[in-house]
Design goal:
nine-stranded mixed beta sheet, alpha+beta, isomerase, RluA_PseudoU_synthase
């Protein structure tokens, strides 16, 4: 079913192109916003607009948003490099490799953790949407490390609550460019979709509250290895916050990393790894904690930066 939205154009969108404005208002890509405009589904004071038309604050905007496309179903097939750190009747803790998404999403055609588990004959909790069965938290496709998936329905509900109440301890390590000052600190800055609508996120006034704590593990000439503790779990949170303090994660070209340094370290993705994951076991209630070793590409990059001094 289509979703009709009506509102005055906010002051902050005065003079903005229609496609850019829709992207910012509704979290759409610029291309999707342009398609909606081309279909005649955007009216300004009752008249259809073109994608390059400029909006005026206070004008009455009517937008008919088409229903989002249905996410694809998981493909049950083994995933190369998907390791198992722990498993019992309630949970399976995986060591997620790079290039693997947590679950199917619109636009993602690569392998997924969910599909990989189903492909080995494992069963997972059926709670939640079909394309996210058993998934209680996510890692970016190119972020590696420890990730828990619920196998039982009880585990699913208890773990979802634990993540919501922030009782799960998630520790990451990130190799960032330069040397953060202070060496130990907190980034408290709201995050929302980047105004460009290109799929990135950014520190945005009025965004969702986001808090990242970091501590220096080791400083090198060109970069610093950080231990990172998330108080909140926003999409791309560590990547956005490190970029916002002008110390982007090495190899993270989407968020401002130096491509020359990335090439020198042999990085084809961001140097970000979910190294530890701890929580109350949803079955027996005791505290459990799991650790994931560095994958080969990150270990090689760390050796290379250390050799630089």
């Amino acid at each position: 079913m289509s979703d009709v939205r009506s509102m005055p154009v906010p002051d902050g969108l005065e003079g903005e192109r229609a496609d850019a404005a829709l992207s910012r208002l509704f979290g759409l890509s610029r291309g999707r916003a342009a398609d909606i405009i081309a279909a005649g589904d955007v009216l300004l004071d009752g008249r259809e607009v073109g994608k390059s038309d400029r909006l005026h604050a206070g004008a009455w905007l009517e937008v008919t948003l088409p229903p989002p496309p249905a996410p694809p179903a998981p493909v049950a097939e083994p995933v190369a490099g998907l390791g198992i750190l722990y498993e019992d009747d309630d949970i399976v803790v995986v060591n997620k490799p790079t290039g693997v998404a947590a679950h199917p999403t619109t636009g993602w055609t690569g392998p997924t953790v969910l599909g990989g588990l189903l492909g080995t004959g494992r069963t997972v909790a059926t709670s939640g949407a079909a394309e996210r069965q058993g998934i209680v938290h996510r890692l970016d496709a190119n972020t590696t490390g420890a990730m828990v998936v619920a196998k039982s329905e009880t585990a699913y509900s208890r773990l979802k609550r634990a993540f919501k109440e922030r009782t799960v301890k998630k520790r990451y390590q990130a190799l960032v460019q330069g040397h953060p000052d202070p060496f130990r600190g907190t980034v408290d800055a709201p995050i929302d979709r980047h105004p460009s609508g290109d799929g990135r996120f950014a520190v945005v006034a009025g965004g969702r509250p986001s808090v990242t704590h970091y501590d220096t593990v080791e400083a090198f000439r060109a970069a610093t290895l950080l231990d990172v503790d998330l108080e909140t779990g926003r999409t791309h949170q560590i990547r956005v916050h490190m970029s916002a303090i002008r110390h982007p994660i090495a190899g993270d070209l989407a968020y401002g990393a130096d491509p020359t340094l990335a090439a020198r370290l042999g990085l084809r993705r961001q140097w970000l790894h979910a190294v530890r994951l701890g929580f109350e076991h949803p079955g027996h209630g005791g505290w459990v904690e799991f650790e994931s070793p560095y994958p080969d590409d990150l270990a090689r990059a760390l050796d290379a930066v250390a050799e630089d001094g």
